[in-house]
Amino acid sequence: MIYLAIALGACFCTYWVAQVIFVYLHMRWTRRLLPADAARPEPPVTFIHPIKDLDPDLDVNLASCMVQDYLGAVQHIFSFQAVEDPAIPVIERWKAGHSEQDITIIVNPRQPGLSGKSSNMVWGLKMARHAIVLFADSDVRVQPDLIRKMVLPLLDPKVGVTTCGQINRGGRTFWTRFFTFLQNCETDFNWAFLTRLGMDVGITGAAFAMRREVLAEVGGLERFGGSLLEDMFLGNLLYQRGYRIVLGPFVECQVDELGREKSTNYAKRLAIGIKTHIAVEAPLFVAMLGWHWALLIVALALGNRPLLLVALGFMAFRTAQGLAQRLVTGNRILPVDFVLPLFFDLFGVFFLLYPFSEPTVTWRGISYRIKAGGYIDETQR
């Protein structure tokens, strides 16, 4: 049993090391700006920004999206749900000070059956004038060459979408640090890495770009907007249609202090999405998160001291790998970070195994009741 445990641990430890190396290298590529080339086409783009409420660093995030080194025309559409949204004055001030930019602000109610973000995106798409559309969340900041790196892959007709992982930074409290660790693990160290390896794990919605003809071919945004994880659903369908999914640059998010509810709601939302849209791979995710805990439980149950030492050694390695994750994502290591890797793994196993029965998930101030298959049943504020 000892040899089997060591062999199992060696495989997973190799995966952990490969994750850290991948994120480090992709961060370097993200920060290495891609210059313009007059011989290379840069087609016009519609940049759609679905927004709800005022993010703490909206001014900085907005400036990074609007000050782009891109030769083609860019149409910006800011899509809101309510005229009293506190972010609207921020966008209006930017528009007043940058009359040379093509900026439209629209306000429309949430469409029944769609998530708030999906509804904003659908309304924004109705106003789009260009053949390529780029979507980005309002809580992210980007490099000056984001549009170029997102659009150029789409010149290949075999590419269906360019999509980005989101690097989260900041916070000092336990649940804030847990939230950033959770998002980084899920988005950058697992999803982005597996996407680069060619696995069908969907896309992420932090920022993605598509040709409108491809979006129409797969049924439009409305087809996905009723799903709790519409981006994962969309990515699955693109894979099925034979399109390539290209990993774009990382975008960054500075996280304010958060409470336990947002962290647990995000974990619940993610677990439901995995079990719905990549159900075949779900047991693999359970194994990836819980194998070292399983070794520990078996060792304790059998009273096997050598196996116990092996399990504890692997758990120490996981803790070290979690701290390395913090460093490569630009986070300072705080005392709370020493307990997060093992806690995250145990927490994730619970949520992936727990049989949710029509749960309610709250996100951005809206509560979504989720029915079988991960679809929105009813929405209430």
* Fraction of residues in β-strands: 15-25%
User: Structural class from helices and strands?
Assistant: alpha/beta
- What count of helical segments does DSSP give? 12
CATH homologous superfamily identity of the largest domain: Spore Coat Polysaccharide Biosynthesis Protein SpsA, Chain A
N to C succession of SSEs: HEHEHEHEHEEHEHHEEHHHHEEE
CATH architecture of the largest domain: Alpha-Beta Complex
Identify the strand order in the major beta sheet: 3-2-1-4-7-5-8
Contiguous low-pLDDT stretches (5 residues minimum) are none
Note the quaternary state here.
single chain
Q: Can you walk me through this structure?
A:
The protein folds into 2 domains: about 1-20 and about 280-380, no CATH class; about 40-275, Spore Coat Polysaccharide Biosynthesis Protein SpsA, Chain A (Alpha-Beta Complex). About 50% of the residues lie in helices and about 15% in strands. It is built from 12 helices and 12 strands. The protein has helices at about 1-30, 60-65, 90-95, 115-125, 145-150, 175-195, 210-215, 230-240, 260-275, 280-300, 305-330, 340-355; strands at about 45-50, 75-80, 100-105, 130-135, 160-165, 165-170, 205-210, 245, 250-255, 360-365, 365-370, 375-380. It has a 7-stranded mixed sheet with strand order 3-2-1-4-7-5-8, sandwiched between helices. The longest helix has 30 residues, at about 1-30. The radius of gyration is 21 Å and the shape is globular.
